[in-house]
Every structure is written in structure tokens, then in C-alpha cells.
Target: Dual-action HEIGH metallo-peptidase
Amino acid sequence: MKKQLLLKMGLCIVCASSLLTACTKNNNQGADKKVDQSAQISADVSSKITALGFSTDNARKVGDNYLVEGDIMLTPANLSETSTSPTLRIAEVEQYRTTNLVKNLPRTVTVSVSNLPTVYATATANAVARYNALNLTLKFQVVSSGGAIQIIGFNQGPSGGYITLGSSGFPTSAGNPYSQIQMNTNAAAYGSNPDLGYVTSVIQHEMGHCIGMRHTDYFNRAFSCGGTATNEGTAGVGAINIPGTPTTADAASWMLACSNGSDRTFNANDKIALNYLY
Model:
């Protein structure tokens, strides 16, 4: 998830799988992982990203992975996967999921926090409680270390009018959740005294990516991020509409691409989407 910094320099959030995702705050609203902006991607990698249904605009190499759409990290394994899903439609405004979901339900996924200030650990516990309150067949449990989803920190300042608040990924083809959430500890992201509700909402968003949720405004990131209208991908694969979710703009969804700096949690349509999947 990202947050745009142009409007509120003091507030920053980034959101976003085994596709990694990120959240940013826009120095207008959104977040993504620390990247080597000088790194280039090959034509072969670019074509694979496009084949997965993601935009290659501003795609960047991050270690061995590739950051796309401002907050989604694709691993080499993701680039080699082929879709087994039915024909997909281009997103409009409904809730959307990725091709891969968490399998072997009912299931409890453990979550741990390493080497981060107390507010991040408390926010993680709160985010877990929010999911578990939905009584899904997929539940979460906080553990002291070695969680199936491990939350760690990185430090990256603003770039291009946005700051990354956090990054994560999508489930693996084997049906496991993405294994890592990275949270930005830079002061420009959450300030020197991070708001608990704000941090909770970003972790909640990134956990959504880890279990297969795409952005609600995937069809047009400008809905939450501002700026030029941008579709996150052609939806050849990887953006499957969840039945029962609305076909009109959903300004309060926890899976909007960019944060407005508030404590955004599940709305009624989000709950419909999660209950349908899990």
C-alpha cells in the first residue's frame, strides 16, 4: 500500500503475494519495498509480467524479485507460473482475488514480528484479531518467532511523491500464504510516534495480499492514489472477480491501492469477499 505525500507530508502509508505486494503513501496516497531504482528488467521478464496480467509501467527489480504496480512483488517462481483459472474479466470496481489462494482449509496461519518497535507487534495482534472476528475457515495466530507470515522492517524514504508503507506477496501455487510482510520504519512513513490504528490497517491490508486479495481499485489506481488513471494490468490472469461484491466504486475497502492516512478496516463488501473465499 502507498500513500501520496503531496497532500499530507506527515502521514505515509503503503499497501499491496508468493507475489509480493507493497503499500504506499501518496505524497498524494500508497507502499512498496526498498528498491534499486537503477535496476532494469529484461524484455523476457517484462513479457512474463504482462502475461501474468500486471502492468510493466515503472516495474523495478528488487533483489531477485520484481516490484510491479507500486506494491506487488513477483518472484521468479511467479513469472514461471501459468494460470489454471477460468477466463478472467478486466476489473471494474469489485473485490478481486489472485489465481492462487490459501488451501487446506480450515487452517490457522501463524504470524510473527521480528526486530520492530512495540507498536508494530501490537498492530499485528490487532490485525489478527480483526480477521479472526470474521469467523472464517482461515484463521491467524500470533507467535513469538518463525511464523508462516513473518513481519520485518525496512527503511526507505519517499520517492516520486509517494512513500512505501509496507510490502507483501500473494499465495504460492502450493496453496500457502505469502511468507513475509515488510513494514517501512522510515519516519516519513508513520512519523516518530506511529498511530496504532494506522499501522494496524496497513498490516491488515498486507495480510490480505498474503492470502490472495488484489486491490479493490485495481482497474483504476487513481481512485485512491490520485493522479493519472492507471489500470494495474490487463487481467489476462490473476484478477478474478469475487461474486457478490459491488459494481460501483467502493471508497472504504481495506484493499484500496493507496492509503488516505486513516485506520481503514473491513467494510460490508470486504466481508462478503472474505467469507466467499474462506
Remarks:
- Confidence is low (pLDDT under 50) at residues 6-21, 27-39, 84-93, 231-237.
